[in-house]
Design a protein that fits this description.
Helix content of chain A: 10-25%
Number of strands of chain A: 9
Radius of gyration of chain A: 13 Å
Strand order of the largest sheet of chain A: 1-2-3-9-8-5
Strand content of chain B: 25-35%
Radius of gyration of chain B: 21 Å
Strand content of chain A: 25-35%
Low-confidence stretches of chain B: 383-387
Largest sheet of chain A: 6 strands, antiparallel
Number of helices of chain B: 8
Shape of chain A: globular
Oligomer: heterodimer
Low-confidence stretches of chain A: none
Number of strands of chain B: 19
Shape of chain B: globular
Chain lengths: 126, 387
């Protein structure tokens, strides 16, 4: 994924504009967390509302909840993270993706409420 | 260190602060100090210390010097362990308790080289320096030792650098004047490293063999840089407080403020080995004797997780039926075991090794089991003196 084409939530998740939409966490977020050792993700078929918690990322030093950037039904979870959670650190925008969502809400409005990369990174303290 | 350059938010800086920032360390507040948490990866720093060697800036810790004809008596009154068997140049670990047996701090005491029972050095936790200093003075005065013990807070005059890991000794041997290989566990010597005057002790807080090196603040940068350079080929790397925490937790070394504090006793914390109830009077003795006779109502035990969830401090612990029975005091991911580990205070009846319990993590019960501690024990052990 090219981060310039993604939308970002203030809670550090990113989402691609597509169907299914892919969700992950930002480079800034993985850097703040440090070594990721466990990722808890929802089951396929779970329906999420924009802003609702859907899992957590555990690093050696801390744990961070994950929030759905848009509303949708989970169509896939990244099974590779079970054995190699460190992909979230090494490849936050590609191999370290978290879930795929089939949008169920007002996608245009939900994406519009998120930030582009430049304004997300400005707000994240870059 | 208590005199120091002040950073943002009133946090103190060690003499090595600039080096940590230049090395790209992630800094965070710890006990009033702006300290390095990691230099890129807690996991890599943890493994480096277990497999090769790690270098730690511990200059935030406090050092009190006690000298004079009453120094031994004051040390013996203060600590729960017994300083009587210590020869000059030997040290030990000990809790310091109030009269009710609760823990003021846990410290290392060195009987300094020189005439017997003339000088002792207490190494105390950074966050407790002020509290400990007041307590030491109060105990001295209450015992009528005011004219017999000279107390000096040397925290601002002392930087502390630890080198820990199986290759620490071989890194130090060629650059240390005294033969560090003959230094036993908890032994202390005045020597030079790369011609820098230091005091060096074979101790640490990682579960590995290693050394703590006391040096003047103005020499700290030179010493740190020399050690990193001379240890590079052996795999030495700087290690932050993040890995220091995972290393000490695997070794089941208590952290003041988490596992032990103003509300817990050394007996509850599993530190009975360092409480000598039969030695002459010391602060906390009578309360601890009574607690031992009455039996403990809770004890600090180790848990490992049966799934991949990671326990953290303050998470609740429940028995197999879901009834809350305690709380995690320290928890995290164990890089050595590859799973979550924790310490928790539990009722003795539910703390036998093998007991199946649950840790409540974000509202969900996760299976855990009581295990024997430490979670990690190194295979080669230095000569044990410090007990």
């Amino acid at each position: 994924m090219n981060p310039d084409q993604l939308r970002f939530a203030g809670s550090h998740e990113w989402v691609s504009d597509g169907n299914p939409a892919t969700v992950g966490i930002s480079h800034f977020a993985q850097d703040q967390l440090g070594d990721v050792v466990f990722v808890e993700l929802p089951k396929v078929g779970t329906t999420l509302t924009a802003g609702s918690p859907f899992g957590s990322v555990e690093s050696v030093k801390t744990v961070s909840d994950l929030y759905a950037p848009i509303s949708g039904r989970v169509t896939a979870v990244n099974e590779a993270l079970v054995s190699t959670p460190e992909l979230v650190n090494s490849s936050p925008y590609d191999a370290g993706w978290l879930i795929k969502l089939e949008p169920t809400g007002d996608l245009a409005a939900e994406l519009g409420a998120l930030k582009d990369r430049a304004s997300y990174e400005a707000g994240a303290g870059h | 260190m208590s005199e120091h350059e002040e950073g943002t938010g009133g946090l103190s800086h060690t003499p090595l602060h600039g080096l940590h920032e230049a090395a790209g360390a992630r800094m965070a507040p710890f006990g009033g100090w702006d300290m390095p948490i990691h230099y890129g990866s807690i996991l890599e720093e943890h493994q480096a210390t277990r497999q090769a060697a790690g270098l730690f800036d511990l200059s935030h810790m406090g050092e009190f010097l006690m000298s004079g004809p009453g120094a031994f008596d004051l040390v013996s009154l203060l600590i729960t362990n017994d300083p009587a068997p210590l020869d000059p140049g030997q040290g030990l670990y000990s809790p310091i308790c109030r009269d009710d047996g609760t823990i003021i701090d846990d410290i290392i005491v060195y009987h300094l080289p020189g005439p017997p029972r003339a000088r002792y050095l207490l190494v105390v936790n950074a966050a407790n320096i002020g509290k400990d200093w007041a307590w030491v003075q109060a105990v001295r005065d209450e015992a009528g030792l005011r004219d017999k013990v000279w107390l000096e807070d040397q925290s601002a005059l002392t930087a502390l650098i630890a080198i820990q890991g199986p290759r620490a000794e071989e890194i130090l041997i060629p650059i240390t004047a005294e033969p560090v290989e003959s230094l036993g566990s908890f032994e202390y010597a005045e020597t030079t490293v790369g011609r820098i005057p230091v005091n060096i002790a074979r101790t640490g807080y990682t579960g590995e063999d290693g050394f703590e090196i006391f040096v003047a603040p103005e020499q700290a940068i030179t010493l740190w840089t020399l050690l990193l350079d001379r240890g590079k080929d052996a795999g030495l790397r700087p290690v932050g407080l993040g890995a220091r925490d995972t290393l000490r937790l695997e070794a089941r070394l208590a952290l003041y403020g988490n596992d032990i504090d103003d509300t817990t006793t050394p007996l509850e914390a599993g530190l009975a080995r360092w409480v000598k109830l039969d030695k002459p009077r010391f602060w906390g003795r009578d309360a601890l004797r009574r607690q031992k006779e009455a039996g403990l109502t809770r004890k600090l035990v180790g848990l490992t997780m049966a799934d991949r969830a990671i326990p953290r401090a303050h998470y609740l612990v429940a028995n197999a039926e879901g009834v809350e029975i305690g709380q995690v005091t320290s928890g995290g991911y164990s890089p050595t075991l590859g799973k979550g580990i924790a310490l928790a205070y539990l009722p003795p009846a539910q703390s036998a090794v093998g007991t199946a319990l649950q840790v409540i993590i974000r509202g969900q019960p996760h299976p855990a089991i009581v295990v024997k501690t430490p979670f990690y024990r190194r295979t080669t052990v230095a000569k044990e003196i410090g007990s």
